[in-house]
Design goal:
By secondary structure, the protein is α/β, with parallel strands linked by helices. It contains 18 helices and 28 strands. About 30% of the residues lie in helices and about 25% in strands.
Amino acid sequence: MTRNEPFVTERMAAADNPADEPLTLSQALLLPRVVIENTTPVLDAGVYAVKTEAGRTLTVASTVYADGHDVLAVTLNWRQAHSRRWRSINMSFLGNDRWEGRFSINEVGRHLFVIEAWIDTYATYCHDLEKKFAAGVNIELELEEGRLHLKHGAERSAGPLREELAGLARRLSKGLPAGRRVEMLVANETRVVMAQADPRSYLTRSPEFPLEVERERAAFASWYELFPRSITDDPRRHGTFNDVHARLPMIRDMGFDVLYFPPIHPIGKQFRKGRNNSLNAGPDDPGSPYAIGSPDGGHEAIHPQLGRSEDFPRLVAAAEEHGLEIALDFAIQCSQDHPWLTEHPGWFSWRPDGSIRYAENPPKKYQDIVNVDFYAADAVPSLWLALRDVVLGWVEEGVKQFRVDNPHTKPLPFWQWLIADIRSRHPEVIFLAEAFTKPAMMARLGKVGYSQSYTYFTWRNTKAEIQEYFETLNQPPWSLCYRPNFFVNTPDINPFFLHTSGRAGFLIRAALATMGSGLWGMYSGFELCEAAPIPGKEEYLDSEKYEIRPRDFTQPGNIIAEIAQLNRIRRQQPALQSHLGVHFYNAWNDNIVYFGKPSPDGESFVLVAVSLDPHNAQEAHFELPLWELGLDDNAVTRGEDLMNGHRWEWYGKTQWMRIEPWHQPFGIWRLDKAH
């Protein structure tokens, strides 16, 4: 080993030194002299990839130091995982041993980044030379040392660089005044060429940290869910893919860019559920689309009543023309009519009496659904490969986004493998986790590959709950691995808050969702303020999961125009295109949530005030975040109501608001410096 060879990382060295044995001298000599630690953003010491989006600036910071007072050079290097070509930038010194570098990546897919640091011999020499020259001490010996630095640099180099360094060394030998030689040695041009010839003494590398770069829609999108079978004017007539074409313009005009369908596959008849999840289905009951599989096929097939095989790609193309992507439900469950039960019985769990285990979530029972057994003897690897091929098949049909049903009830290793396999072939594919479960599992699903997830937002109703939840999502590890999709309702979840809150309540939840996260979604009927529940339950009466439900989307009292404007504001204001960067400010009323998000350039703020009371007017004094704009408490600023375009001037920090829910239960304002 020589002093100029790369050192192994501390993690690698520790692995070679059992904890119950003392460190040997030879092991100590292999440890890095330059320390690289506390690097951010890093998830679980680099075991899992940090998430970011193409084109987004990523800030990497690290603590880097060494013994003594030598000057360090620190670089940030990154590459695509499948490439050997590294790109590099110099990191900036922030003080107190902290270094920072910023870069952006345009290529979607897995990347790696690493930090390199070394003792910059020539920079150290220049630093000492300038100090001694300024102090007026004799520096003849130091000047000769500088000439030798150039000479040795030339010897290590080739081509034009060698010639340039050798020329500089010769000029220094011609008896120039000391001051002139100092100028030549410390000149920026000299430092640049010497950096190219630097031996990188005591070079140390951090571990290679993974980075998952996804397309913008993984972080910023508006989802709209509908049942294609309900796009009909008669509950006795099953809607089709061709019927959905007529809905595309209205969904587009509301500002949505993802159109999500529950499962579109053949539905089983054995144990088919009737209306309101009853155990007795009538002859015309369509059944739950989550009971997948019949003699017409399984997960790879289309329900015959929805149309022919060529109708689906035609709908995908039509949606794209309207700026919409089709997202499909990936539900790994089968009806008892699924072809896999006869073709691959070893993929399932059977009871001692020969009957199959159906799905249960006590006290709920899903007699029409059976689950696969991922670790059954016959299931490894054939079941895993079959499910992977199902996803690949739909990707080939033009589907780039999948909402995955209950992923927390399936093995994490399966998801880690499947998502990585799909994204290695199609890095543009996005997976949304429908995971309503414990926090650790929800975060882990993000770590193993899910692009986004459903959230607890649905059940955060008070000011304290909302603020605490939003702030949690803005902190590691959540901010590094978890993108929240704020769905305001689902076919399974009719939130208690909406049961009695009326139109104002729907606007409250829509405002919180659209302004709180770059990702939000709603299930069809929300825009009509549908809320009739099964008494005492967060479930819809006459659930669309079990029947065909035509709707009149023009009926009075709808909030279509408001939803369209909220989505328009999101597109126009980059600050709202992520859940990150939220700040809560003082509004002295516990019924009013008040927060803001800065523009990327920091020159303006979007401010959001939402009354949580759908029935009564609420008033509050509140503070404009003038300090965030570098303004004093008496500054004049400009305000704009982003819902209606009204503009005004604000004078000072403390202001007053009154929110009337029968008019509009929220305010969305842009705050700008007055010029």
